[in-house]
Amino acid sequence: xVKNLYVGNLPFQTTAEDLREAFSEFGTVTRTxxxxxxxxxxxxxxxxxxxxxxxxxxxxxxxxxTFQGRTLTVNEARPREDRPRGGGGGGGGGGGYRY
Length: 99
Fold this sequence. Notes:
The structure is a single chain. This protein is an alpha+beta fold. It has helices at residues 16-23, 55-62, and strands at residues 3-8, 28-36, 43-53, 66-67, 70-71, 73-76. The strands form two sheets. A four-stranded antiparallel β-sheet has the order 2-3-1-6, with helices on one face. It is globular, with a radius of gyration of 16 Å.
């Protein structure tokens, strides 16, 4: 089963390939993504790693550990919460379904 991991407190120069290399020591990495700011295209300091196996070992092995000079936060990613969208005269908001 594929698991998606959140990786926080990343140095701004970290690349998706850096994440792949670090996490592949624990299992099979199927996808990596660094989240960047829409306007500046600069890293926002967090990303996601999708693993088909070894995710628990990666969390245990990397959470709280130093990576490129910073202490990582690594845990299983949670679904994104709905949040109100800007604009207009109040109300309306997010769209989508809530379960």
